[in-house]
Amino acid sequence: MTKFDIQKGGAPAPLLRVSGLTVTVPSPNGQMEAVQDVSFDIGRGETLCIVGETASGKSLTALSILDLHSPGISATGEVLLNGHAILGLSDRALSEVRGRDASMVFQESVPALNPVQKVGTQLIEAIRSHRTLSLEESRAETLGLLASVGIRAPEQRLRVYAHQLSGGMAQRVMIAMALCTQPSLLIADEPTTALDVTVQAQILTLLRDLRARYNLGLLMISHDMGVVAEMADRVAVMFNGRIVETGPVAQIFDAPEHPFTRKLLAARQHRRRKHKTPKASKPIIEAKGLIRHYPNPRRKLFERRGETVAVDNVDITIGQNEIVGLIGESGSGKSTIGRLLLGLETPDAGTVAIDGRPMPSPRDASWQALRRAFQVIFQDPHSALDPRARVLDQVREPLDIFDVGAATERSAKAAMALDQVGLDASVHRKFPGALSGGQKQRVVIARALVLQPRFMVCDEPVSALDVSVGAQIIDLIARIQRENKMSLLIVSHDLSLVRTLVDRVMVVQAGRIVEEGETSELFDMPRHPYSRLLISSVPVAHPRERSPQRLAAI
Amino acid sequence: MSRLIAMRTLRGLLTVWGLLTLVFVVLRLSGDPLDALLGDEAPPEVVDYYRALYGFDQPLWRQYFLYFWGLFQGDWGQSFRDGRDALEVVVERIPATVQLGFTAFLFSLALGIPLGVLAAVYRNTFLDRFSMGFAVLGFALPNFFIGIILILIFSMTLRWLPSSGTGTLAHFILPVVTLGTAGAGSIARFARSSMLEVINRPYMRTAQAKGLRRPRRIMWHAVPNAAIPIVTLLGFRLGDMIAGSVVVEAVFAWPGVGRLLVNSVTARELAVVQAIIVIVTITMVTANLLVDLAYTWLDPRQREGRSGHKN
Fold it and tell me: What is the rounded distance in angstroms from the CA atom of residue B297 to the CA atom of residue B81?
């Protein structure tokens, strides 16, 4: 399996050597060098993490190693994989190398599997494209691999389709598929970004085990310094298409040199909020015994519809000026709780009281007032804005709807709201398409703010943003809450965000609140086993905190 | 699945009823069938005799009721000209139309899908532009025009192929090409766009990263996924085939349902037109049901009801 070429100098060539890699992509202003002069080595058993933000060129770098670029994108420079020069090979020659010398795992695991082929078919196809095994042997090999990536009942899994797998399960299948051809290098492009924090911890553990077992070289692409702290031996920091800093992981964390590296590290350590001791103020929202279920789709004509319980007997109280966090995994029902409190959905049982009065229904006169006082900030700023309306008009629209003041006054108010979120007049006439993700989220916040709400739900407010941008948005939300005196419900799976921002935390599991407490108390001493699991799954803050025991518990 | 079939059958029956009602009323409003049958100079007694015989002296609602009452008993009415059962007149023409339509359908698939796939794979090359040019020409030119041009070239000038009638395999060629070209054009364009849609999907990159060669990636991973939307189009194509056959059968003197329909409308053969409408509608409803079933067969995600609510 080892095919170390001996170079002229006598030193063995590393598993992977990238030198002077430049990737050119077409852009509206002609060809653009999205990756410039990137060089690095990876040896067997070694993990290099390339860390950077959106459009830093880190994914393009990863794709260059097996020349997986879309047509129109071209890579130049040198990529030596097991001694083979990769760039410039024909599709036929590349198909020999791909999978055999290096395999790749992608961020989105379910879409990375062919939706119309059974999982088993795809695994066996990968094996048989590189190894001369009979169908039976391939099947046996596949079963063994699925078991080794932690999939229970692998025989049954061979017969399922991608959409029947959870994200974590699909990622395990992808890893099995990457390894079934016995490569010496595994390239993982943000392999855990789309996963819940507990599943992320499992996948990271799995990757570490497999790396040790097969003596794999591992190239990991990530935007998350926590993942880097968990996994990397060496780190390369990419910024604007260049590697701006590279070194052993401890050095990067302890003595970062480049300002961008420092910014990335700082984004993880927000200023801790001074947590107030909850006053016995009159609550703005008091919900009791909330239950919400959704009917399952009917499969047969006269089948009785089953139901999925999204929210199961939840009590929530939110005080004036209080920031409450809801944490839990995707599908736990935390977003549904947010919608129930806003009155956007009606509970099947239980009551929501606003200022001690029952939640109005859309027919009541007080409904309009409620809609004005309660606002929401969504996860994805890209789809939360109308692409065909100018920024100022979108921020002014709520004022138009509620007929607040004269027309000129509304524009002035909208401009003020934009100013408060740190956007000046230069964006007023722009369309959302011309803004960055962070700017868009600021517009979304301004739009919610312009009505001077008393209560806001922030549903995953930063998870669609880059880490450093997300940190700014978190600071912004905290400042706005202070200045405008309102109550917030932060719904998030990002525990570090919740920890820095909120006064009180509730842990949601399968529609139930399993634990509730003051933020620092709950994070330091979680009592419920699920809270403990959730909190221990968060990647470590520094590589020295890594320990096999910590993850073995997960 | 059974729910789907039950719903579709019910909806299909409603469609047949609605269309039949429309045709029934429109045909009777648009002229007196006896004028066409007997001519202008028939004596009034004769006209009255036939009017009573066929029940045209009855009020419209009664005729309508009697017609549906007859349908439920298997009586489709009669052809005025020869007094035969209307259904029988239609059914004897069906084989010719089915032969022509089905062959043309296969021809348009065999031509359209490879053209579309190749155009997508070799996007923005000469091949792409050529096949898309052909596709636009195919569905932009009206059937009768293509038919006449083909007759001009292959029958009149080159004298290779017969221009009308049935009998030998050679008789098939011109009508099939005429009827199939338009279909091939739209299938090619649709196949191209749905291939382009899937060709940059993440699973295609996975297939590439696994080390599969391009032909296998296209045939095993892109085409089966691209086939799903194409199947929808095929259901519609069948309707176009029937509509097209009206013209093509007239141009090539093909003894099928299409020509019967044209003749029957001119001759105000009410019962025959109505029978054709019923049969065509049933064919269309069945075709659409088959398309939906093919969907579930092609796309495993359709097999269980759409998986529910995601948070």
Answer: 47
AA identity, residue A32: M
- Which string of DSSP letters, residue by residue, matches chain B? -HHHHHHHHHHHHHHHHHHHHHHHHHHHHS--HHHHHH-TT--HHHHHHHHHHHTTTS-HHHHHHHHHHHHHTT---B-TTT--BHHHHHHTTHHHHHHHHHHHHHHHHHHHHHHHHHHHHTTTSHHHHHHHHHHHHHHHS-HHHHHHHHIIIIIIIS--S-SS--SSTHHHHHHHHHHHHHHHHHHHHHHHHHHHHHHTSHHHHHHHHTT--HHHIIIIIIHHHHHHHHHHHHHHHHHHHHHHHHHHHHHTT--SHHHHHHHHHHTT-HHHHHHHHHHHHHHHHHHHHHHHHHHHHH-GGGTSS------
Contact A98 B209 (CB under 8 A): yes
What torsion, rounded to 10 degrees, do the Cα atoms A119, A125, A128, A133 define? 40
Mean pLDDT of chain A: 88
Q: How many Cα atoms sit within 13 Å of B248 on the Cβ side? A: 29
pLDDT in tens, B171-199: 888 999 998 988 899 899 999 999 999 99
Locate A493 and state its tokens: 């799976």
* Residues of B with Cβ-Cβ distance to A173 under 8 angstroms: none
Cα A440–chain centre separation: 18
- Rounded CA-CA distance A304/A296 in Å is 10
Q: Chain B partners of A117 at a C-beta cutoff of 8 Å?
A: 220-221, 224
pLDDT band at B6 (very low <50, low <70, confident <90, very high): confident
Q: Rounded to a whole number, what is the distance in Å from the CA of A182 to chain B's nearest CA?
A: 11
**Contact criterion met (CB below 8 Å) for B80 and B33:** yes
Q: Does B203 touch chain A (CB under 8 A)?
A: yes
Q: What are phi and psi of A510, to 5 degrees?
A: 45, 45
Task: Name every chain A residue with its beta carbon within 8 A of the beta carbon of B308.
Answer: 294-297, 308
pLDDT at A272: 55
DSSP, collapsed to helix, strand or coil, labels residue A21 as strand
B304 CB near a chain A CB, below 8 Å?
Answer: yes
Angstrom distance (rounded) from CA A92 to CA A94: 5
Interface touch A112/B308, C-beta < 8 Å: no
**pTM, whole model, 2 decimals?**
0.82
All residues of chain B having their beta carbon less than 8 Å from the beta carbon of residue A94 are: 211
pLDDT score, position A553: 52
Phi, psi of B29 (to 5 degrees): -80, -25
**Residue A4 confidence (pLDDT):** 44
- Confidence band for B306, pLDDT divided at 50, 70 and 90: very low
| Residue of A417 and A297 predicted with greater confidence | A417
pLDDT value at A1 more than 80: no
Does ipTM come in above 0.90? no
B213-266 pLDDT, tens digit per residue, is 999 999 999 999 999 888 888 877 877 777 788 888 888 888 889 889 988 888
Is B207 an 8 Å CB contact of chain A? yes
> b vs e for B114-150, b when ≥16 Cβ sit within 10 Å of the residue's Cβ?
ebbbbbbbeeeeeebeebbebbeebbebebeebbeeb
